[in-house]
Structure formats: structure tokens, C-alpha cells
Automatic annotation (TrEMBL):
<keyword id="KW-0489">Methyltransferase</keyword>
<feature type="binding site">
    <location>
        <position position="120"/>
    </location>
    <ligand>
        <name>[4Fe-4S] cluster</name>
    </ligand>
</feature>
<keyword id="KW-0808">Transferase</keyword>
<dbReference type="InterPro" id="IPR004383">
    <property type="entry name" value="rRNA_lsu_MTrfase_RlmN/Cfr"/>
</dbReference>
<dbReference type="Pfam" id="PF04055">
    <property type="entry name" value="Radical_SAM"/>
</dbReference>
<comment type="function">
    <text>Specifically methylates position 2 of adenine 2503 in 23S rRNA and position 2 of adenine 37 in tRNAs. m2A2503 modification seems to play a crucial role in the proofreading step occurring at the peptidyl transferase center and thus would serve to optimize ribosomal fidelity.</text>
</comment>
<keyword id="KW-0819">tRNA processing</keyword>
<feature type="binding site">
    <location>
        <begin position="224"/>
        <end position="226"/>
    </location>
    <ligand>
        <name>S-adenosyl-L-methionine</name>
    </ligand>
</feature>
<comment type="similarity">
    <text>Belongs to the radical SAM superfamily. RlmN family.</text>
</comment>
<dbReference type="InterPro" id="IPR040072">
    <property type="entry name" value="Methyltransferase_A"/>
</dbReference>
<dbReference type="InterPro" id="IPR007197">
    <property type="entry name" value="rSAM"/>
</dbReference>
<dbReference type="GO" id="GO:0008168">
    <property type="term" value="F:methyltransferase activity"/>
</dbReference>
<dbReference type="InterPro" id="IPR013785">
    <property type="entry name" value="Aldolase_TIM"/>
</dbReference>
<feature type="binding site">
    <location>
        <begin position="170"/>
        <end position="171"/>
    </location>
    <ligand>
        <name>S-adenosyl-L-methionine</name>
    </ligand>
</feature>
<keyword id="KW-0004">4Fe-4S</keyword>
<keyword id="KW-0963">Cytoplasm</keyword>
<dbReference type="GO" id="GO:0032259">
    <property type="term" value="P:methylation"/>
</dbReference>
């Protein structure tokens, strides 16, 4: 018999996996629920603190298992209460997680990949290339550490994270299995008890994965649209060449149909000056979406070093919003939070060790000093 010296990290185990783990070590399955509650509900990583677990089992667990959260490289707290963590993942890259408080609601924006292979033309994560898929414990570890950072008082029933959006770095549908497993832990009663409607996956449109999502989980969906026709979307979101608007929107509709009548698709639309912000784009979008119950969230472009795009004026954004509203849509404009800590969409820098050399090309071409240049960016608030 070979004895493994690598401890199993219990942090990323779904209930099913944890039960299997306890089976394997000859313990009762109900231990899974007990231990999960300590880890996720109370944010505990020390087996000795798990007081309803027998001392013998605690000692056994100390030898073969661990609860290992991600390594936090830095934590920034904005004057508006927004928090941002830079977290190191096993591949050596770093990803970012952002917490945004809004009254009673606390939204955590989670990363799913280190970098992104899809290279949308207005996204700084895309410019950094792709490095790795995050493991389940690296994904769930972001919510675990966010809850813990509010000094333990806020764990249990008073947890600060009430909503989760998969809108950090990476394309969640391209890390399908790990993202789905982590989302199951988020909604689990012994995990984070996040209601399914308060858990949102945002995608740029990986149709084959979207087609199978409802077989695995029923959470809210945001489609990153950004253009009302294929010609423009091909330029902004290159994956559109593979999965064009018609089949993408059909896939979204099929997914939404599985959620029932009351749930609406959210359309995210990053607004780029003189590119997709004209009234004719709004009119085209109204036509495109006419049979799809949805709400629309306009995201003013957040600039990054040497990007050729600009943010439209507030007037242009409001005009666009009003035109969509006239057609009956619920249209919001995303406000920038955490300006002083660069926590906005498209501002997440991370530290990606690029496998595609895209970031190297970008950084050499533009002589970008990533950290310094990012700090100099000032964002306007609407
Ligand atoms: N890959 C997924 C989720 C991560 S991106 C997706 O694309 O949906 C989260 C959101 O931020 C997306 O809607 C994306 O289009 C938007 N975004 C990316 N870069 C941006 C920028 N520079 N300014 C404003 N929004 C940006
Ligand atoms: Fe990837 Fe989303 Fe950025 Fe596109 S917008 S490059 S899919 S993270």
C-alpha cells in the first residue's frame, strides 16, 4: 500500500465529494455536513476548533487533510467600502477578487481563470493572455477569504457576501467543471447558502458549454453582448466568429426557459466611444432583442494603458439608455466602485504568467509598466 504524503484540501470539496472522502477513510457520511459547516459557514480552518467532531477523528484529519485557503498577496480597501484582494493561484499567476457593499447587499466578483484566452479587444484580462484554470478550492477560496476578512464576526448567519457574480478574470464557461462544482458549494446549505437567483454567471458566449449548463445548475445568466450585429461583435468579441449572435441568443433563450418565467437574462454592454454607442446601435439592439425578455446593464468602458478605446460622454450614455428605455427595457448604467483601488470591470490586473505570449507582446509593444500605469488611471463616475 502506498501512503500519500499530500494532504487533501477539504476547502474545494462539494458535499458529494466530501461524503466520498469520509467513506474512503472509513467514517460516517454525516461527518461531511458537519465539517463543511465549520469550513464554509464559520470560516474555520483548524480541525481542533471543530468541537462536534470527535477528538480521534480530528487527529486523523490533521494527518491526512487540511483546509487551505488561497494565498492573499494584497488586500486593498477603498474609501467607499469596496475591497480588492490579489490572490496567488497554484500556477504562480495572481487573480483578483472584488467585494462591493451596497446597503444590505454585499456582492463578490470572483475570478474563474488566471488570464483569458478569448482576447476581447476592450478587456485588459484578455490582453494579458491565458495562464490557467482555477481549481475548485481556488474559486471557492475567494468567497471563503472575503467572509473571513470581516474578522469572523460576520461569518455564520451574518455573512457579508449575499450575492456572487462570476465577472472577475476569465471566461467561466471555459473552466466548466470547476466553476460548476464551486457554484454548487456557493448555493449549498452547508456551504454559503447563496440563493440561486443571487448567483450570476457572465459569459461572452461559449455556446456548447452554455447549452449544457442547465443540466448542471440553474443560476442567473448575464450575456456580454457589446454589439448589436455580427460584424461589430466579431471585432470586439472574437469568439463571435465561432458562435455568432443567432445561435448564441437561441442558446441563451433555451437556458432561460429552464429557469422559469420570472427570471430574466441580463445583457451586459460595455460602451465604447464612437464604436458601439450611437443611437443606431441602440435601435439595432432593440430589434435584435425583441423576442427576448431581458434587462440591460450598460458598462462605461474603463480604460487601461495604451488601449485605443475611449469611454463615451455621460450624455452619450444617457441618450443610449433613454432610447432603450423608450422601447420598454429596464436599463441600468453600472457605476464605478472602488476607483481609488482600481477595482472596476476591466481594471483587474492580476499578475498573469502568460502561456500565449500575448501579454508579453502587448507589454513590449506599448512599453507598459502594468502596476504603475494602472495606478495612474483615473475613472470618471457617472
Ligand atoms: N468572461 C466573462 C466574465 C468576465 S468579464 C465575460 O466576458 O462576460 C466581466 C465583464 O466586464 C464583461 O461583461 C466584460 O465585457 C466587461 N469588461 C471587460 N473589460 C472591460 C472594460 N475595460 N471596461 C468595461 N467593461 C469591461
Ligand atoms: Fe475574457 Fe470576458 Fe475579458 Fe472577453 S471580456 S477577454 S471573455 S474575461
Amino acid at each position: 500500500m502506498t501512503i500519500s504524503t499530500v494532504k487533501s484540501n477539504l476547502l474545494g470539496m462539494t458535499k458529494q465529494k466530501m461524503e466520498h472522502f469520509f467513506d474512503l477513510i472509513g467514517e460516517k457520511r454525516f461527518r461531511a455536513a458537519q465539517v463543511m459547516k465549520w469550513i464554509h459557514y464559520f470560516g474555520i480552518d483548524d480541525f481542533d476548533a471543530m468541537t462536534n467532531v470527535s477528538k480521534t477523528l480530528r487527529n486523523k484529519l490533521k494527518i491526512i487533510a487540511e483546509v487551505r485557503g488561497p494565498e492573499v498577496v494584497s488586500e486593498d480597501i477603498s474609501s467607499d467600502g469596496t475591497r480588492k484582494w490579489l490572490v496567488r493561484v497554484a500556477s504562480g499567476s495572481c487573480v483578483e477578487t472584488v467585494y462591493i457593499p451596497q446597503g444590505k447587499r454585499g456582492t463578490l466578483c470572483i475570478s474563474s481563470q488566471a488570464g483569458c484566452a478569448l482576447d476581447c479587444s476592450f478587456c485588459f484580462t484578455g490582453k494579458q493572455g491565458f495562464n490557467s484554470n482555477l481549481t475548485v478550492d481556488e474559486i471557492i477560496g475567494q468567497i471563503w477569504l472575503a467572509n473571513k476578512s470581516f474578522s469572523g464576526v460576520q461569518t455564520g448567519v451574518n455573512r457579508v457576501v449575499t450575492n456572487v457574480v462570476m465577472m472577475g478574470m476569465g471566461e467561466p464557461l471555459l473552466n466548466f467543471d470547476n466553476v460548476v462544482a464551486a457554484m454548487h458549494l456557493m448555493i449549498d446549505d452547508f456551504g454559503y447558502c447563496i440563493p440561486k437567483r443571487r448567483l450570476t454567471l457572465s459569459t461572452s458566449g461559449v455556446v456548447p458549454m452554455l447549452n449544457k449548463l442547465s443540466e448542471h445548475i440553474n443560476i442567473s445568466l448575464t450575456l456580454s453582448l457589446h454589439a448589436p450585429n455580427d460584424k461589430l461583435r466579431n471585432q470586439l468579441v472574437p469568439i463571435n466568429k465561432k458562435y455568432p449572435l443567432k445561435i448564441l441568443l437561441e442558446s441563451c433563450q433555451r437556458y432561460m426557459a429552464t429557469l422559469g418565467n420570472k427570471r430574466m437574462l441580463t445583457i451586459a454592454y460595455t460602451m465604447l466611444k464612437d464604436i458601439n454607442d450611437k443611437i443606431e446601435h441602440a435601435v439595432e439592439m432593440i430589434e435584435l432583442l425583441k423576442n427576448i425578455p431581458c434587462k440591460i446593464n450598460l458598462i462605461p468602458f474603463n480604460p487601461f494603458p495604451y488601449s485605443s478605446y475611449e469611454r463615451p460622454s455621460n450624455n452619450a450614455i444617457r441618450r443610449f439608455q433613454n432610447r432603450l428605455r423608450q422601447a420598454g427595457y429596464n436599463v441600468t448604467i453600472r457605476t464605478t466602485r472602488g476607483e481609488d483601488i482600481d477595482a472596476a470591470c476591466g481594471q483587474l490586473v492580476g499578475q498573469i504568467i502568460d502561456r500565449t505570449s500575448r501579454s508579453e507582446n502587448y507589454i513590449t509593444m506599448h512599453k507598459v509598466n502594468v502596476t504603475k500605469d494602472m495606478q495612474q488611471i483615473t475613472l470618471n463616475q457617472i
